[in-house]
Amino acid sequence: MVAVVSVSVLAFGGVACSSGPTPTETAARDFADALTRRDAQAAADLTSDPVAAAAAIRQMFDGLDPTDARFAVAGTDSDAGTFTLAADWTFGDTAPAASGTATTTPTASATASPAPAAETWTYDTTGGGQPVADGGKIPWNPALLAPGLSADTTLRYTTLSGGSPKVLADNGSPLMAEQTVTLVNLDPAPDPAAAAAALAPLLAPYAPGISAAGLTADLAAAQGRPLTVITLRDADVAPIASRLAAIPGVELVKQTRLLTVDKGAQSPAFDGLRQMWEQKQADTAGWAVQLVHPDGSADRLAGRDGTVAPDIPTTLDPAMQAAAQAAIANLPQQAAIVAIRPSTGGVLAVAQNAPASAQGPIALTGLYPPGSTFKTVTTSAALQQGSVTADTVLPCPGSANIEGRTIPNDDNFDLGSVPLHTAFARSCNTTMGRLAVSMTPLALHDAAQQFGLGVDYVTPALTTVTGSVPPADTPAERVESAIGQGQVTASPFGMALVAASIARGSTPAPMLVTGQPGVGDASPAPAPVPVTDALKTMMRETVTAGTATQLADIADLRGKTGTAEVAGQPAHGWFVGVDQDVAFAVFIAGADSSAPAVDAAGRFLRPVQAQIPR
Questions:
Q1: 543 and 581 assigned to the same domain
Q2: CA gap 539, 338 in Å, rounded
Q3: Facing residues of 562 across strands?
Q4: What is the rounded CA–CA span in Å between residue 183 and residue 195?
Q5: Over the stretch 14-45, which tens digit does the pLDDT of each residue have?
């Protein structure tokens, strides 16, 4: 067999030679190398008009902002003095895809998807037109850089949206959508005090905290940089736009943002949904390299159109979200309400008031001692231990010295000896503390995990922390834990999940985006059905004859109150409950008792009774 060897010979000027590169070849290659290095001045100095060339080359790289750009000489004709320049541009993500076995565990935002393929643009241009002598210059022509480029046009890279998806409520109605907003920017020049004095009265109806003095102080802190004072929706800016624009130093800048359809709707759950929406926009975006004309019009030289991203369906119930927000909006303390549908794990509402929002998303990640709401876990552990039943008669003294710590009931109430279900409904600390002494170090930890408390969930578009119930190695530690104090902590989300787990009989996987449930780092077996059934009965007694009788008018409501001591501060107030297929937790920091939380639960539940499936 004869081996065939293919030899490729690059001929310049139609004649292969070995006498070395011609001046044209040398100049062309030096020019290509300088462009690949993005050394605009070095490339420009090889041309007949270094000033114009340098400006054009710098604008090209600035306008396109590539991930990578490479230039090479594809051929020359030394006799004609021309050469062909091959350009290869890369935009977007060039990171290689991860290798190995794929995982089905979603990320925290659950919007992560394979990065779009790198975007490339390749083309050839022709330069020269006359032979280059030794030390001579390449005739300058902007079209050497890109097809169609001229002295009065520029290049730019831009992304192209294929269409904006909506974020939908559980009933399919739009919850969030892309809308136009106006940024009101204020430049400190020429007279900051006068500008602030003119601006503050116009904006005060939309942001009552804005004042001329405050704006002046903010401008001073900005140290000469423009300040974005406020962002207004179209309906808000329209009546005052002309007066705003007339103030020296004020600039109105239009942008598009994902906003709630209901202007008054607020929730920390919206943050993760915005991140998912932005990722979907990025995943489906197109791109274009544009040749921009002096009048602002543009021709597309390369790229592809974007595709329409699908809408994002959520489990949020607008009526419940609004009712939860209204129930706590006017409280002076930090307050939060989280509601979950036990049958599906769908998050129905996540609300917190302004003092809470100033601290962050406390409804989802804030950790606090859960107080007596944790007696749901303690009672579950005691029933599973087998030493008591719901009807076992136990002492409930006003206070008791248990393992060296004096445990009091609220206001030292004394019930004498009562069945466990009564001690639960009336929230006897002394009973629960005594039950915990004989438990194993892991009893409360394990019982809490059966209700999702202490399990970390990775849930699409929802960042949460449920709480922590560490092992209690000593009887004294178990006494503290049994009444929701000591090292035990829970978030409002975590306690809502506890209530949902009791209602369902097992812990539902939390879910914010329909069809995308969260995944926990542990999957303990659920508590036995007789135990959760007993807890539901006790929680009903809490409402009908216990510590939450002010809600007795709400049919079938089951709940548990809680007051949690905090060193040197007023106690936190809690109420967790279940009304048919709605489980919820109410938390009020520094409430000094559970009563404000119980009242807030009533304000939340009563307006939405018609919304609760029965």
A1: yes
A2: 18
A3: 574
A4: 16
A5: 444 446 788 888 999 999 999 999 999 999 99
